[in-house]
Amino acid sequence: MVNEAESVVVNEAVLDVVMLVEIALLGLAAGVYFSHGLWLFVTQKRTLEEMTAARGSLARLLTRGTINLEEIEALRRMRRGVQAAAFLEISRTQTGTGKDKLRFVAAEVSLLDRARKLCESRRWTRRLRGARLLAGMDVADPIVEKLFSDPHPAVRAQAAEWAAAHPSPTVITAMLKMLADPATQARFAVQDALLRMGDIIAEPLAAFLETHSGAPAEAGLRVAGALAETRFLPAALRLSAADEAGVRVAAAKLLGGIGSAASAERLTELLKDSDSRVRAAAANGLGRMQHWPAASQLAESLRDSTWHVRRDAALALRAIGAPGTLFLRRALKGDDAFAADMAQQILDLPATATG
Prior knowledge:
This protein is an all-alpha fold. It has 20 helices and no strands. The longest helix is centred in the first third of the chain and has 62 residues. The radius of gyration is 32 Å and the shape is extended.
């Protein structure tokens, strides 16, 4: 009985110690949580005050005819993170002379030099910050071109964004090579950069499409589709017979944008393609062209086994005008229930729904 009593006393003592430890840990956690919240409040308040001051200094420097050295010195004393954020924020609203002044001030406070050093860092997050700063300031620096082949896709994407404002022959060539980037983020950034460069990329892109196939050609065709120039026609015709369905789809979309007689002939042939996506793209292209001679072939596509092919064929017939509408009305009385249903749906659409 004595041993049992001693055991109960020992267990109670252990429980007391455990409870005290738990209370201490709970108090410590509450203290850490409160301290962290207080630290965030103070830091955010300080950052907001510094950002407000930085915005004011930059606004005065950019709007006045002379450079105030006191404003430059005030910016130079600010924390680097706040300084960079303020410059990037105001850079979005500046062009021409305003951007030139902003670059001058950024150079004076050593922001551009720090950005260049960041681009050479071993850490990808720092390289990303450096590229973002140089892109935001529209600084033409070959150091960013080295980042086109960076191991991290986010850095490559940022470098591509920078490239959009610097469409030199070397940069355009590099962007075209990056069209098949395995990372979606970087690949989309490259396509966007090429589109923002405008018509200057048409000739090198046409040459690129003439000599490439597969994934690079598909990405290039998507860019070319936004320009839809006749110089892309030979490549579009060749690639419309590619083994990859994705390439044929992109080629069909480009052919529909070009809208030539050769395009219409090839799109009519693609209505019989083995892949439903290609057939749908061909129907869509013929509709964009309003190519009425293909109305009978489009009417046949109303019987396609795939819903989106029937839909695009019906929309194309509607876009063609009177000849297409005639075929849609015939389909209503035909023996194919799917074709009749799709024809009815498209005929019931208001005029604004199909352009």
